[in-house]
């Protein structure tokens, strides 16, 4: 008995889970959409920071190139008058060149990271659009199925039962003495009208006959 009870509890638990999954599928999709939208928003913020840092590196690279050119020109100017100063200018130019190489490496890394993140954002947005479209399609199909189910024979069972109830009700009323009496009264009333209408027709026919005879008499008198 305990085994059957445990089996029953397990089956009902699984059934509850299935029903819960069916009822909450829209909520699950909505949560997935919100989560995906948040990830995209965060990724766009990261992309913005990457682009700002890349812009900063580009500005530093521009400054480093200008600095290298300045030290190179100074070295040329000092080479004719002061060799030690010229050598110091060359040393500083080399430092600027090393800084330029580091900045170029940083720029390349930022560009690569920004391009990858941009592709990821685009792919995520396409997925989000696809999820939303599928959700709308399934909701439309669900609504359509619900409407169709309301017009199926099984769904109209109550309506048919109501129609049968009306028929039985009307039959009972027709069988009641009051209904029969009212029906007879209606027939007598109709018959009275019909008799009166027939009598009027006969009177009209008689009047027409009299007029015709009077016209005949007038013509005969006129001929005499």
UniProtKB/TrEMBL annotation:
Pfam families: PspA_IM30. Keywords: Coiled coil. It comes from the Bacteria. Residues 33-141, 186-223 form a coiled coil. InterPro entries: PspA_VIPP1. Belongs to the PspA/Vipp/IM30 family. PANTHER family: MEMBRANE-ASSOCIATED PROTEIN VIPP1, CHLOROPLASTIC, PHAGE SHOCK PROTEIN A. This is PspA/IM30 family protein. It comes from Aliikangiella marina.
């Amino acid at each position: 008995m305990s085994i059957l009870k445990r089996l029953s509890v397990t089956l009902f638990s699984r059934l509850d889970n299935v029903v819960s999954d069916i009822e909450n599928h829209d909520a699950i999709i909505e949560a997935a959409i919100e989560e995906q939208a948040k990830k995209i928003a965060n990724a766009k913020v990261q992309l913005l920071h990457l682009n700002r840092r890349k812009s900063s590196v580009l500005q530093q690279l521009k400054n480093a190139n200008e600095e290298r050119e300045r030290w190179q020109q100074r070295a040329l100017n000092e080479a004719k008058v002061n060799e030690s100063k010229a050598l110091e200018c060359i040393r500083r130019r080399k430092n600027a060149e090393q800084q330029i190489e580091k900045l170029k490496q940083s720029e390349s890394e930022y560009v690569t990271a920004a391009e990858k993140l941009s592709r990821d954002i685009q792919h995520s947005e396409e997925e989000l659009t696809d999820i939303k479209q599928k959700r709308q399609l399934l909701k439309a199909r669900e609504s359509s199925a619900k409407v169709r189910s309301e017009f199926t024979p099984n769904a109209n069972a109550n309506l048919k039962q109501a129609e049968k109830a009306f028929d039985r009700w009307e039959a009972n009323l027709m069988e009641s003495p009051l209904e029969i009496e009212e029906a007879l009264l209606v027939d007598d009333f109709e018959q009275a009208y019909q008799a009166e209408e027939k009598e009027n027709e006969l009177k009209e026919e008689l009047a027409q006959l009299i007029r015709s005879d009077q016209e005949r008499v007038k013509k005969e008198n006129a001929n005499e």
